[in-house]
């Protein structure tokens, strides 16, 4: 019987992170923790796509700088994003003389990059890797939903794609924040077809991975100070709590969702934030700081992703979802 | 100074492969080696996208079957494809109760999946993984270029996206075909903007990775029976030979390109085949057979990818390219 959890016995460290976010995001919880607050979500570029790529480049570059490393000490960049052909990651990688591993797990990409990067460092293949991802409201909206100029009304179950990017340097040693294990998720599809209801679509995938993680590690929700999901939003988070409770796991006391907490006034964005940048920014700024500087010692970071495209939705398909989880602990 | 080549000291094995291809492809060199020849490139589905997904599902399922494994012995599926949001891989993964790692390197995806899968098995994290990818002429053409119904004339430097899929099971033991090392590529962009001239765009990336591989391993082209590139096509292959020769490496004697050899009458498809399925089918059928059953003992498999999208081309960007290489040897 296959096991889906891998253990990092050499405890690779997250030695530094860097984050950048847009004005709406910086008005919320992450504002005082990001490396750069953008006043203009175009970031001086003439297209939103170029702005998204520039944010990701910023996060990668500053994560390396914050780690006190030179670029040529970095063995690999593991990155992906929501845009077609993960162009933000590919074009950001063009600016670095670093091998590039493109990965895609929609909004779960940050956790997938942590898990692969953790294994590559733990296994002794690489000494330092950068894991990074990002998203932009305006690129995601026009790629997945409607032209921005159309000004469509949003349904109450919708979320708002985070404009921001986050990156982390994973090294074989340095500091006290370690990756200790990872659980790779299966694709789970409960038949949701509403592309505005991502939280409901992704919650069963999060449940599947969390319960697999608890079973295979022998841990319980209480063993973590925080169980952090990526971007289920307010509605999806409530669904996840119910779904895990039904299976005998009570995550109610220590669960927090990056999408639910990222915006200051959640009502404005209905169910909260989403996007590959959502968990990347919240995890690598606010939550990383909380681990280094007190309070939180053990986090299970379970980022979720909806693996749809406009083509599959157009062809009548439902939304397959995934969740990858990594345990990050202060040692 | 970072090294971009990783060594697999436990020599994970490619224990089995499976391939499937369309009628045009099966008229060529791979016809007698694939597990299934398609008479109809719709594969009984109502859309080309669903046919592409079904081919990939077939390759994954039959690779597991050919390896004599049960599905629950497989620890991970590492897969990606050319379609937006790698839907063929994600939707194929939905049918398997196996953790899914989505990867994207355009037409280099097969080599990226081999390299990551090799490391995960070599490092002891997983016992058996499936690496798989595929492509379909009709889905790629309408996504990247023009509607099929438009009947556009193709320029002489164009290639033809292969309709096919290939998968392989990588295990910690079994058989004699082993992954021995991998070189991850950097993103290389020489400023080519012609989306019909992929071979010229990708050749410098192949040169970069091949030379990095030779330098870091201390090997020379003569140490391999075959140096196999993914889908440079006839023109791109000639450019690669020149570019490597300029740097003191003569690959002329043992280089072969999957795109150049895949079709029976290359003139019909101008420069030959391309697509994530091109190297996946040729490598996992014809070349895998040649290694098991005589002649070829050591292969450097260097698949190349063009990391563009229609959005980047529309915004005036050039084409960033990448090449990942894995050494596959009979031990």
Structure, explained:
2 copies of one chain form a homodimer. The first copy, chain A, is an alpha/beta fold and 331 residues long. Helices cover 34% and strands 23% of the residues of chain A. Chain A is built from 10 helices and 14 strands. In chain A, the strands form 3 sheets. The first copy, chain A, has a 6-stranded mixed sheet with strand order 1-9-14-13-10-11, sandwiched between helices. In chain A, helix 2 packs across helix 3 and helix 6 runs parallel beside helix 7 (233-246). The first copy, chain A, is globular and about 50 Å long. The first copy, chain A, starts with a strand and ends with a strand. In chain A, 64% of the residues are buried. At the A-B interface, helix 3, strand 5, helix 4 and helix 10 of A face helix 3, strand 5, helix 4 and helix 10 of B.
**Strands of the biggest beta sheet of chain A: in what spatial order?**
1-9-14-13-10-11
CATH architecture field of the largest domain in chain A:
3-Layer(aba) Sandwich
Helix content of chain A: 25-40%
What is the assigned CATH homologous superfamily of the largest domain in chain A? Answer: Stage V sporulation protein AD
How many individual helices of chain A? 10
Overall shape of chain A: globular
What's the number of domains of chain A? 2
Q: What is the CATH top level name of the largest domain in chain A?
A: Alpha Beta
* Most extensive interface between two protein chains, with residue counts: A-B, 61 and 61 residues
| Biggest sheet architecture of chain A | 6 strands, mixed
By CATH, the topology of the largest domain in chain A is Peroxisomal Thiolase, Chain A, domain 1
Please give the oligomerization state of what you see. homodimer
């Amino acid at each position: 019987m296959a096991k889906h959890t891998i253990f990092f016995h050499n405890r690779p460290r997250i030695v530094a992170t860097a984050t950048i976010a847009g004005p709406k995001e910086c008005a919320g919880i992450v504002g005082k923790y990001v490396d750069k607050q953008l006043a203009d979500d175009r970031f001086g570029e003439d297209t939103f796509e170029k702005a998204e790529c520039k944010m990701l480049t910023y996060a990668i570059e500053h994560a390396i700088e914050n780690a006190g490393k030179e670029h040529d000490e970095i063995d690999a960049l593991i990155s992906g994003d929501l845009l077609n052909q993960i162009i933000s990651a590919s074009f950001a990688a063009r600016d670095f003389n670093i091998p590039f591993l493109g990965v895609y797990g929609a909004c779960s990409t940050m956790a997938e990059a942590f898990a692969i990067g953790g294994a590559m460092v733990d296994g002794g293949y690489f000494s330092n890797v950068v894991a990074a991802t990002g998203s932009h409201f305006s690129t995601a909206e026009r790629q997945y939903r409607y032209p921005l100029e159309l000004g469509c009304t949003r349904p109450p179950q919708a979320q708002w794609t985070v404009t921001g990017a986050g990156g982390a340097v994973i090294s074989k040693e340095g500091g006290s924040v370690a990756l200790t294990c990872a659980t790779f998720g299966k694709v789970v599809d409960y038949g949701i077809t509403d592309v505005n209801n991502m939280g409901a679509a992704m919650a069963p995938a999060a449940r599947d991975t969390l319960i697999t993680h608890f079973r295979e590690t022998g841990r319980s929700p209480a063993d973590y100070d925080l169980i952090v999901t990526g971007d289920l939003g307010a509605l999806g988070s409530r669904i996840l709590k119910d779904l895990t409770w039904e299976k005998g796991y009570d995550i109610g006391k220590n669960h927090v969702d990056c999408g639910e907490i990222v915006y200051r006034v959640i009502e404005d964005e209905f169910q909260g934030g989403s996007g590959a940048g959502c968990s990347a920014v919240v995890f690598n700024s606010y939550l990383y700081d909380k681990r280094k500087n007190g309070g939180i010692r053990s986090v299970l970071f379970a980022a979720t992703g909806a693996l749809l495209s406009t083509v599959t939705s157009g062809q009548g398909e439902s939304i397959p979802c995934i969740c990858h989880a990594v345990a990050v602990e202060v040692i």
